[in-house]
């Protein structure tokens, strides 16, 4: 006779999000599948709109004088029979990741949020709400000045030569520049986060302000592939403005917080003892007899 498994009510979910390891792995698997499915749907959408997206991406190059030298109109080259297919697939994947970002970002959030406290959830939502516009602002600025940067870089061609730029090289250049500008605009937000959790103080930032500004100019000169001054300034100047805004936020935040009584002590200086002589527990009488039999080690053992 087959034994039927009794189906009872499922155990209540732990309000603090604790679960066995296998449950965590199963939840991670399910959320990864949902995220991959969302990206796949976004990939299909990206394939359908890949033509207009490509026209938008190549517009900065078409604004350069060098784009008209080869055929009289804006044109890029590619090599290989399957190159055009993979280029279209790359553009579609870019669009798919952007279109499906609400879905896979939510899956990441839903997987991580049970382990966070309420204050940590609030800070996470605030930082996520600021990180997306900052990244978009950096990408837009990159797109806005990319034609000037390309004109500067392609202006070093020798006399009598024509630049034949492949679509792969140009697309990689656009992706790298968009990512660099977008991620660079997140650095001041990271600085604010480190200040909130107590890793970096405003005093330390104010002390090294000139060095940080200088390093931002160096970062803008090194991280941009072309190294031209226009792209460097376009990256460094907004970063400096955001850095100063982050420093102002840290100053106002620390000013609102009450100063600790031990704030003036150095790391190797001991804190003073308290003069408070209030008993620890007023309800416990001091003349309570001690039961020596309860602790044999404390009893007076005489022969």
TrEMBL record:
The keyword Protein transport applies. It is a multi-pass membrane protein. It is found in: Cell membrane; Membrane. Keywords: Cell membrane, Membrane, Protein transport, Translocation, Transmembrane, Transmembrane helix, Transport. The keyword Protein transport applies. Its main location: membrane. Residues 266-279 have a biased composition (Acidic residues). It comes from the Bacteria. The chain crosses the membrane at residues 32-50, 91-112, 124-146, 173-199, 211-227, 233-252. Residues 262-303 are annotated as: Disordered. The Tat system comprises two distinct complexes: a TatABC complex, containing multiple copies of TatA, TatB and TatC subunits, and a separate TatA complex, containing only TatA subunits. Substrates initially bind to the TatABC complex, which probably triggers association of the separate TatA complex to form the active translocon. Belongs to the TatC family. Part of the twin-arginine translocation (Tat) system that transports large folded proteins containing a characteristic twin-arginine motif in their signal peptide across membranes. Together with TatB, TatC is part of a receptor directly interacting with Tat signal peptides. This is Sec-independent protein translocase protein TatC. It comes from Actinomadura luzonensis. The gene is tatC.
